[in-house]
Amino acid sequence: MIGVRVLVAAIGKAKTDPAGAVFDHYAARLAFPLKVREVTLRRPVPPDRLKAREGELLLAAVPEGAVKVALDERGVALSSEAFARQMAAWRDRGVKDVAFLIGGAEGLDAAVRETADLVLSLGPMTWPHILVRALLAEQLYRAQTILAGHPYHRA
User: Fold this and answer.
1) What DSSP element (H or E) covers 38?
2) The whole model's pTM is what?
3) Averaged pLDDT, groups of 10, the chain, 155 residues long
4) Which of 29, 55, 84, 141 could form a disulfide with 109 if both were Cys (CB 3.0 to 4.6 A apart)?
């Protein structure tokens, strides 16, 4: 997946905890650039506008022309092999940036899901946002090893 830059745009700041260490562990093993952009609201927002405002911030963090992947339990669940093939397809198509979008505690705004190129589910369960980052980093590393024929992934 060399040649593809990956952005993880997430609502909120990651706290120091074991899940953050897992994210860092896998992120350090990636052969391609991975950047995290944590977006936060600077002023209180009425509850009825919160998801929409968070969605605007997430979409504003995405580089122009990037493939947008919204992480949402209503999305499609891909096997690790299918995820690797999707990443390879974007790479082979000349995509320079892939942005993974992680919502806040209230989830993703519909506008984020509607503008996403892929709505991806990590399963039907709800995960804490810091764990979503860790799971995503591990799957990115797994995809890298699948595409390289490395034995890390055992089917």
Assistant:
1) strand 34-39
2) 0.94
3) 89 82 95 94 87 96 97 96 97 97 93 97 90 95 95 78
4) 55
